[in-house]
Amino acid sequence: MKPLLELDHISYSYHSLIGETKALENISFSVENGEFIAIVGPSGCGKSTLLSIISGLILPEEGVVRINGTENNATHTNIGYMLQKDQLFEWRTIYSNVTLGLEIQHKMTSPYKENVDKMLETYGLSNFVHARPSELSGGMRQRAALIRTLALEPDLLLLDEPFSALDYQTRLEVCDDIATIIKREKKTAILVTHDLSEAISVGNRVIILSRRPATIQKIVPISFSIPDCTPMKSRNTPEFAEYFNTIWKELSYHG
Ligand code: ADP
Ligand code: MG
């Protein structure tokens, strides 16, 4: 079977009047269906650029992005994007926020709506469907933003530092929450973060990028031996500390 996503020797530079900024250099990796990939790298190294290339928002200068074996064409691929800000609209209720994508894409049909209702119920938001975003906690807002993204039943989810606007304690909880939902819904996801602990706690593999221009420095497979491991539980395992030290050294030697 072909991997869901394949990056084949991707390079990219931004061009402006003052010159060229090389952001990505020779990036190759594949993602299998159902994997949760975490990408870490120093600030400004090219992480967001990489997600833009995967989504088809920008085209690579060199190399090819393939989805299910075919060259990526933004119009045919169903990719969900979640950003740092939840981008919920205050003038809409939670229900009309989570169904916004369905509305825009003319998909307000029963199977999609039933899926949304089920997720609102499962993830504790069904009593808030008539509320406005400002009435919800930060964690609930991120959950609503995720349900809005999942409503379109994306093949691939891209998460660009979605927790970095939250304070530390909330961030741990929301990260656990969101990662657990994504795994339970059996989605394939790529999370970009500059937080090493976050990457290790959620990822099946952690891809370490170098400083700009980003190259792949190392790919570390992650697994924890405790049963029913959640991101939160993983943080207290002995393996976690080992992964942290290995990747930390990798980042500081080469970063
Ligand atoms: P990260 O997400 O890892 O912080 P980015 O992918 O946003 O990094 O940016 C990588 C580099 O490319 C940075 O040096 C940034 O300043 C530069 N860059 C990003 N977007 C643009 C743009 N639209 N035009 C020119 N340079 C850009
Ligand atoms: Mg970024």
Summarize the structure.
This protein has 255 residues and is α/β, with parallel strands linked by helices.
Describe the largest sheet. Answer: 6 strands, mixed
Bound molecule kinds, no repeats: adenosine-5'-diphosphate, magnesium ion
Proportion in helices:
25-40%
Low-confidence stretches: none
List keywords for this structure.
alpha/beta, binds adenosine-5'-diphosphate, binds magnesium ion, globular, four-stranded antiparallel sheet, 255 residues, 10 strands
Protein described:
There is one protein chain. The protein has 255 residues and is α/β, with parallel strands linked by helices. Helix content is 36%, strand content 25%. It has helices at 47-55, 94-98, 100-104, 110-122, 138-151, 168-184, 196-202, 231-234, 238-254, and strands at 5-16, 19-31, 36-40, 62-67, 70-71, 79-82, 156-160, 188-193, 205-209, 216-221. A six-stranded mixed beta sheet has the order 6-7-8-3-9-10, sandwiched between helices. Strands 2-1-4-5 form a four-stranded antiparallel beta sheet, with helices on one face. Strand 4 (62-67) and strand 5 (70-71) form a beta hairpin. The radius of gyration is 18 Å and the shape is globular. The two termini are 35 Å apart. The model has no long low-confidence stretch (mean pLDDT 91). It binds adenosine-5'-diphosphate and magnesium ion (MG). Magnesium ion binds at residues 47-48, 160.
